[in-house]
Amino acid sequence: MEDRFVAEPMLGKLAKWLRMIGYDVLYQRSYREEDLVRFMAQGRRLLSRRTEAQAHHPGVILIRSDHVGEQLKELRDLGCLKLDRSKFFTRCLRCNVPLREADPESARSSLPDYVWHENLSGIQCCPECGRFFWPGTHRDRMLRQLAGWGL
After folding, report:
1. Which of 34, 41, 130, 148, by CA, is between 20 and 30 Å from 115?
2. Which tens digits make up the pLDDT trace of 20-44?
3. Alpha carbon distance 130, 50 (integer Å)
4. Confidence of residue 117 (pLDDT cuts 50, 70, 90)
5. In a domain? residue 93
6. Distance CA 10, CA 67 (A)
7. Is residue 110 within 8 Å of residue 94, measured between CB atoms?
8. Are residues 63 and 135 in the same domain?
């Protein structure tokens, strides 16, 4: 079974990047303690920057760096991160829900004309929030950033 995570509030950028590479990551701006306990009981691993979290939550993954590229390397070095390019860009960066192939006609009014004409086969949709995703320059920049971090 692949690692699933719950990221504490100070790890929002890390949560976004983990979702981008295909990981199931819950992220909220705040949590009640009992919610963290419940998420961990469901098999999620807690990502935290707080050293005191180790005393309250056995198995917490303590993230030491302030920088997302270094945080990803920490997870890789701990054996918690495996890069499988076939899973990249398969989750909504906002909702964490697996993306679905978009119906081209329903997407047309929500997309720039050039996307609809040039990338029709690569358009995906989040079934939760309705956002559309397609292979464009933003995706290319994210892939270059990963490579720049040595990942």
Report:
1. 148
2. 999 999 999 989 888 988 999 999 9
3. 34
4. low
5. no
6. 11
7. no
8. no
Give the separation between CA 18 and CA 6, rounded to whole angstroms: 11
> 39 and 111 in one domain?
no
**Do the beta carbons of residue 22 and residue 87 sit within 8 Å?**
yes
Whether 26 contacts 7, CB under 8 Å: yes
DSSP string, 88-105: TT-B-TTT-PBPEEPPHH
Question: Would you list the DSSP string of the chain?
Answer: ---EEEE-GGGHHHHHHHHHTT-EEEE-S---HHHHHHHHHTTPEEEES-TTHHHHSTT-EE---SSHHHHHHHHHHTT-----GGGTT-B-TTT-PBPEEPPHHHHGGGS-HHHHHH-GGG-EE-TTT--EE-SSHHHHHHHHHHHHTT-
Domain residue limits at 125: 100-148
pTM, two decimals, is 0.89
Q: pLDDT tens for residues 82-93?
A: 999 999 999 999
- For residues 10-25, give the mean pLDDT: 96
Q: Residues 28, 7: contact at Cβ < 8 Å? A: no
CB environment 105-119: b (16+ within 10 A), e (fewer): eebeeebeeebbeee
* pLDDT surpasses 60 at 1: no
